[in-house]
Amino acid sequence: MKYPLLPYGDLPQAEDRSHDSNLAAMERNQFFEGQKGPSEVMLLEHFDLAKGNGMDDLHPFYEGVTAFLTDLLINSLGNPGQTLGVANRRMQQVRTPVQMSRKWFSIFKRANWKGSQWGYFIRYHAVLCFLDNNLPAHHVEHISMLSYALFVFSQDSIDPADLQRADQNIERFLALFQEYHGAENMRFNVHMLSHAAQSRRLWAPFWTTSTFNFESWNRQLGLWVTSPKSAADQVVARHFLKIYVHSAAHREDISEHARGELHQLGNHSCLEDKEYSTET
After folding, report:
1. Which of 171, 213, 212, 277 is nearest to 62 (CA)?
2. Which of 93, 126, 177, 251 has the fewest C-beta atoms lying within 10 Å of its C-beta?
3. Tens digit of pLDDT for each residue in 210-226?
């Protein structure tokens, strides 16, 4: 499914294409053109799916647009090794603040980067990596538009003037994206950028609707499921067992010996949050 921004043949509007793909996915009961099927919330009266959706930043913009655009730029170079080498050395020289919980590793291994690493990369260091580094100046300027907009959208609070400038940068970015990389690369994630400013205007900065916190629990939930039968019940049972063990270790109506055993069990790796938590 492609969403060209500029006039392109006789393609229907993006909304019509999404509707048709949703309908096809529902009728076939399988994924179709990136669509899993219609959302139930579309049935709500007076609900606008575009305006009423808080929009995530992790999947469409960091793991989606940023990673996709980076690969397009690198693959456009005849011999990207030198460019990547320079970018890699620059990245290794960056001294990040402690708030950056997961620093990126080699750009040569970017296929293994997590969403948080892509987020740090585009908001803070992508322009630095590609500036004066064999990449044409207009491409550096292009990626800087995305960098600026996502930086603004990710602030603790957003000044209306900054939001307007970010929106203008996104509009220009989308037009140039199609011009530089072709309509065939105007994916749905790229199209979603056209709604980003409106979403932030209605729903506040990205951190209010981000899925990063949910992603960090995925591995923990996976470890709590040991068989395919009744997976949800397993998660609930092990979650309450963990809570009980931690609380019972401090109950006075339990013998000191039992409390000691429970305390040791509570510190065991199978019950420790730090063993389950994994950032995206």
Report:
1. 212
2. 93
3. 888 787 778 788 888 99
